[in-house]
C-alpha cells in the first residue's frame, strides 16, 4: 500500500510539473491581450511591457501562441507570429518581424527591420538590427551583433563579441566567436570556424572545415576551404585560394594570388 502511494505521489508531482511548465511564461501572472485589429493575442506577463493603444489594444502584433514574459519589452510595429517566446530583459522594437519558435532572452535587443524566424535562440547581450535576417537553428549569443543586410541561417553560432554585417551570408554549422568580424559580401559556410580577431571581408569566402584565427585577414576574392588553417597575422587576398590541409601563419605575409594546398 505504501509502495502504491509513493507511485501515486510521484505521478502527481510529475503531472503537476509538466502542467506548470506548459503554462505561458512558466506560470507567471499575466493575461492574454487583444491585438489592435481585433484578433485575440498572446500572453503578456504582468511584469512585462507591451505598448498599447489608447483603447488598451496592443500596438505590436502578438500572435495567440506568443509569450512576452519576465521584464521583456515589445514596442512599435513589431510582429510576433507563431510561438515566439520573449524572456528576461529582452527588448524588441521598431519594425521587427519574428515567426516560428524563436527564444529571445537575457538582455538581448532586436530592432530596426530585422527578421528572426525558425527556432533561433537570441540570448545574453546580443543584438540583431538593421535589415538582418537570422533563421533556422541559428544562435546569437553573448555580446555578438548581426546587422546591416547580413543573413545568418542553418545551425550557425555567433558568440562572444563577434560582428556580422554588410551583405554577409553565414550558414551551415559555422562558429564565429571572439572579436571576429565578417562583413562586406563575404560568405562563410559548412563547418568553418572564425575566431580571435580574424576578419573576413569584401568578396572572400570560407567553407569546409577551414579555421581562421589570430589577427589574420581574408579579403578580396580569396577563398579558404578544405581543412586549411590561417592564423597569426597572415593576410590572404586577391585571387588566392588556400585549401587541403594547408597551414598559413604570420610568417606567410600577404598572399594575393595563386593556390596553396598541403
Task: Describe this entry's structure for a reader.
- The chain has 262 residues and is mostly beta strands.
- The protein folds into 2 domains: 31-123; 126-262, UDP N-Acetylglucosamine Acyltransferase, domain 1 (3 Solenoid).
- 8% of the residues lie in helices and 34% in strands.
- Strands 1-2-5-8-11-14-17-20-23-26-29-32-35 form a 13-stranded mixed sheet, with no helix packed on it. It has a 12-stranded parallel sheet with strand order 3-6-9-12-15-18-21-24-27-30-33-36, with no helix packed on it. Strands 4-7-10-13-16-19-22-25-28-31-34-37 form a 12-stranded parallel sheet, with no helix packed on it.
- Strand 1 and strand 2 form a beta hairpin.
- The longest helix is centred in the N-terminal third of the chain and has 21 residues, at 2-22.
- The chain is elongated and about 65 Å long.
Offer a concise description of the structure.
With 262 residues, the protein is mainly beta. It folds into two domains: 31-123; 126-262, UDP N-Acetylglucosamine Acyltransferase, domain 1 (3 Solenoid).
Strand-helix topology:
Layout: H1 2-22, E1 30-34, E2 40-45, E3 49-50, E4 61-62, E5 67-68, E6 73-76, E7 79-80, E8 85-86, E9 91-94, E10 97-100, E11 103-104, E12 109-110, E13 115-118, E14 121-122, E15 127-128, E16 133-134, E17 139-140, E18 145-146, E19 151-152, E20 157-158, E21 163-164, E22 169-170, E23 175-176, E24 181-182, E25 187-188, E26 193-194, E27 199-200, E28 205-206, E29 211-212, E30 217-218, E31 223-224, E32 229-230, E33 235-236, E34 241-242, E35 247-248, E36 254-255, E37 259-260
Parallel strand pairs: 2-5, 3-6, 4-7, 5-8, 6-9, 7-10, 8-11, 9-12, 10-13, 11-14, 12-15, 13-16, 14-17, 15-18, 16-19, 17-20, 18-21, 19-22, 20-23, 21-24, 22-25, 23-26, 24-27, 25-28, 26-29, 27-30, 28-31, 29-32, 30-33, 31-34, 32-35, 33-36, 34-37
Antiparallel strand pairs: 1-2
